[in-house]
Every structure is written in C-alpha cells, then in structure tokens.
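Last lecture ended with a question: if I hand you only a sequence, what can you say about the shape of the protein? Today we answer it with a concrete record. The protein is Histidine ammonia-lyase. Below, first the input exactly as provided, then the predicted structure, then a couple of comments.
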Amino acid sequence: MTFSAASVTVGTGPVSFADVVAVARQGAPITLDPTALEGVTATRRIIDALAEDVDPHYGISTGFGALATTFITADRRAQLQASLVRSHAAGSGPEVEREVVRALMLLRLSTLMTGRTGVRPATAQTYAALLNAGITPIVREYGSLGCSGDLAPLAHCALAIMGEGEVRDAAGTWLHAGDALRAAGIEPVVLAEKEGLALINGTDGMLGMLVLALDDLGRLLTTADIAAAMSVEALLGTDATFAADLQALRPQLGQARSATNLRALLAGSPLLASHAGPEDPTVQDAYSLRCSPQVHGAARDTADHAALIAGRELESAVDNPVVTLDGRVESNGNFHGAPVGYVLDFLAIAAADVASMSERRTDRHLDASRNKGLPPFLAHEVGVDSGLMIAQYTAAGIVSELKRLAAPASVDSIPSSAMQEDHVSMGWAAARKLRKSIDGLGRVLAIEIMTAARSLDLRAPLLPGPATAAVRDLVRTVAEGPGHDRFLSPEIEAIVGLVQTGAVRDAAARIAPTLG
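The predicted structure:
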C-alpha cells in the first residue's frame, strides 16, 4: 500500500468525506487528538464504575441480544467480550475490498474517539495502529444485515486487534493476525467490559461504501455529461436545447449543472456550427440527447441528497448501549441502517438510469438509419467488418444487470436473534450492490466515449470542439481510430481505466475549467 503524506486527525470532530477517501484509497496515516483521548478516558471511568455495580447493565454485565437479561459475573466478562467478537466474526464469501475495510475501520475509530462508547484509550490506539501499519482484516462479503450495526464485518476487524483471525499486511500478503501484529510491534488488546459491543455496533461498513460511492459518482456524473456532449456533436445534434434560459424554466439544481457542463463542452465546435441555423432539417433531437441534463441532473440531485445523509451519519456516534453526555448508559436504536440503506438504493436507481441513457446514445451511433450519414456500426468495410456492434451488446448487457441491481435491498427485512432483532435495514447489501452498479456505469460510459470518439473521427474533415477533441485525443492514446476490426476488449478496458481514474474528466476540464 502506498501511503499519502497528509495525516488525518481523528477526534477533533467528524471525519470528512475527504478524510475517508484519503485513508481508504490513499493510505493516509492517522493521528489521534490528545484532548479527545482524555474524553475517552473520562467516559471509561463511567463504565468501570458500572462494572462494579451489583445491578446488571446491558453490555457491561449482561449477555447480548436475546440474552440481555442474563447476568455475567465479573470473572467471566473478559471472556464474554472476546466470545462476542469471535462468535460474530462469522462472515462468508469473497474478501471485501481493502478500501472498504479501511473506510469501515476509520469510521468505527471516529466513533470510538467521540467518548460515547466507553472503550479504553488503548483500544482506540490499537485500532489506529492497525490502520497506520497497513494491516487490513479480512472481511467477508456476507454477514451483515445492516442492523445492530454491520456486526460480522466489524467483528472481523475487532478480532484482528485481539491478535486473532486473518489479515493482509501492507503488501497484501495473507497472515494470521497475531503474526501481523507481532511484525508491526503492536500489542494485542484483551477486551474489557463493553468494548466488544463498542467495536461491532455501527453503520460503518455501509457508510464507508456510501462515501466511496459518492467519490466515484463525482467523477462519473461529470463524465456522463462529457459522453453526452461527444454524442450530441458526433450525431449532428444541437446545443440549443441546453440554453440557460430554457433550463431556468425548470429550476432543478442538478439539471442546471449538467446543462452548464454541456454548454461548456460544446462551445466552439465546428461540427455543431456546420449544421446550425434555419437550414438544419432536425426539428429536435432524440430524448437520449436532448434530455441528458434532466436525467444526469436528477442523478446529481440524488447524489446531493445522499451526501446530506452521509454527512449527518459522519457526525453520529453510533453504539448500543451508548454513554450519553451526562454520563448515563442507555440502550437505543441508532445502529439501524435505514437512513443509509435508503440512499444507497436510491443511488443504484440513478446509476442504472444514467447508464441506460448512455447505452441508448451508443446505439444511435451504430444505426445507419439514425446516425446521420455514418456507416452502419461505424464499420470500416461494411459487410466485412462488424465495427462496434458487439461493444454495444456489452453495454446493453451491463445496463440490464444494473436494472436488476436497482431493485432495493432496504425493503427486504428478515428477522434474526430469536425475533429480538425483528426488523433490519439490509444496508450492507444495498452498499455491496451499489459498488457493482458504479463499476457498471463507468464501463457503459467508457463504451459510449469510445464509440463517440470513432464517430467524431469519421466526421472529418469537420472537427469537434476543443473540449471534446481533448477527450477524443486522450482515447487515442489507448485505442486506435477507425479501421478494420481488431481485438476490442483491451481497448474497452483501457478506456474504462481512463473513466474510472478521472482522466477523461481531467482532459475535458483542462479546456473547460468550469466543469463540475
């Protein structure tokens, strides 16, 4: 893992979106705020006092879930906490991506540092030490119902700070957690009262994936505008419909941003100028061209709403029981993932629809009855060559999958824990499918950009505008221009990389710096 130079301080307030991305994707190191650690110490004193009380207190001197009324004597409580973590580390399936686990761990650490969970400072410090050493617990795909927190994923992380379970080191090598901690000079934690619960009760997994998804969508929705602009231009459409006064008649914020992008991207286009004016026989463009600001803009507004919910969740101290500001230890339901689950599902709908519109634009490039003079399938030698025919099949197959992934997970509650936990959010599942949706969206946009770039080349000697030409030229660094059929898959994958890393957006933004 490559570590970034900038450090993220945890405990001075909520971690930011940028903090999550920096730690999860760039390996930014973590420091713990000393004042916040003092608050953690003060709260721990409350837990220690309750541990000595003869009356039972949930999570401190009782069992958990349906066993909450079972009193546990002092000599068995360390075993109780360790047993909780071991039994809950019951995930199954493929490994979850390293960036997701690191985001999850940062967010749990942020909650620990609020002083509302009752852990000891040393426990928070050990959690931070794992992140700084690049040690990543192996978390499995299945195990969270998104209620009582992302229990199994968080338990796999808690198991690692105990020196148990499976991890990967900074180089990605599989190790037993105890061996990894020894190699890094980290002392395993022996959990005390309340700490097992504090380490596994949170929405951190689904929230981490939401923040990462919003980071991706920030690139992809601008890239969708770029792809649409290239298609409008190459298909001899018009930019008149994107005029500011027309857009202002429907004051949707996202729509206005996308339309502004399209105007900037199409500015100075000789291709558009070649058919502009009263002699243009086109009455109006197809919806996939003309309505792109409306659809892309709705997706932007959906992302903005999701960011609002994510921002509130980043400010939260989610645990059960929780230590209140006045020192009470109270059971609560803040671990329920419904707020996060709903917006994760909402984003999957938006991703599917933006991709669906993109695929329809791709198809128009290839249809000689609709592409205004371009060869069928943009083939070099029609009949001998298939051109980009099957690239569109690939986009269509992905879009079909995205439509299935748009079915909400958050309505699919299933009871657990002997009916004590009888309604769950399935937010983790919503987040997992959204990651697939965002990957698919990037691939569909890449295929449109590849197709539009070929159409622009075939319009020569007419030239595209400066911004779209910059993207076309970038594409040509990894994919050849028009010609006889060749092996397309490597070119598609290379353009997908340009889309996902933000290189396409950056190429256009160098010419149109107002892109947003």
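Comments.
1. The CA atoms of residues 362 and 451 lie 6 Å apart.
2. The mean pLDDT is 94.
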